[in-house]
Amino acid sequence: MVDLYSAALVSTSIALAAILSIRFRVSSAIFEVTAGIILSNFLGVQIESWLDFLGTFGGLMLTFLAGAEIETRLMKKNLKPSLVIGTMSFLAPLLGVVFFLTIFTDWPLITKVAASLALTTTSVAVVYAVLTEYDLLKLQIGSVIIAVTFVNDIMTLIGINILSPSFNLYTLLFFAIILSMILIIPRMLKYVFIKYGRRSVEIELRLILALILGVALIADVGKLHAVFGVFLLGFLFANSIQKYDEIRSKMRTITFALLSPAFFIKAGLLISLPTVANNIALVLGILAAKLLSKFAGTYLLCKKWIPEGAAFSTLMFSTGLTVGIITATLGFELGLLDRTQFSIIVISVILSAIVPTIIAKKYIPKKI
Q1: In the record, what terms sit under GO molecular function (predicted)?
Q2: Among the four residues 8, 57, 115, 121, which has the most C-beta atoms within 10 Å?
């Protein structure tokens, strides 16, 4: 039976988070995680089975949409700078945060790596929001920043996936299905949309949701982790789904109205405020390690390839949110992070979405 007390508080929190995000022009994910922290630490809300499912599904949908947003045309156009800067944007904080944690903690090596992977990301959501706000998305600088962001996040998802490798026959089945979908998806989506599209039963959406859960299951039993499988599926859908704005719009509505908030509130429910308060110096140290290492790894490269906005671009690459929390959550579910470590890392990830964004507004490049 659904706990109506928890359900009422969670649904109210989702609505309030949306209002606050619009009012303060900050990603709603930040307010949703904050709501989860308050609900858990002050109002006695726990992760019920229904919220656990919605949160898990929300993480999968966010990962799918991240893959589906990748434009191969954009990647090809900016291939060299996106690969070079994206690689350094991933490696620099990975090494920097591991180095910091080695000095200041006694965490096991695999825990340090899992924690650092969550801090390597660049937030697609934050980058999109800022570039759109300042009309930079369609300019060359915007194209390069977006391409770098995709490369960075792809490497993060691959990294967390291979951190605990264990392959079997289902692994081969997964890759066989993925390869076959390269040919099947464009034709299937076109056929379904033309024949059954724009109907109240939303067959095209039901089919995509079924594919997401099916691929997630096969990837999971194939020891590749569900988020990796769903990200690849999203990437395969990218070129096709971008042709049908109706489908993409409806999927975003489903995700950002319910599933995404459930994921972030669930993450917030796992965070212990006393733990964060007792480790605030460590949280700030991890944040500083990420920001400084991102700057050291990418600033000179940005000056070379994005000279009109090197400081701005570097700060954008320093943001982290959705994929960072997904990575931390997966690390927690795999037993690589305990609740204390998870709380410290997620708070650090959230701060990395806020601090660079505030500073970046002082370095907005001229629209040329």
Answers
A1: antiporter activity
A2: 121
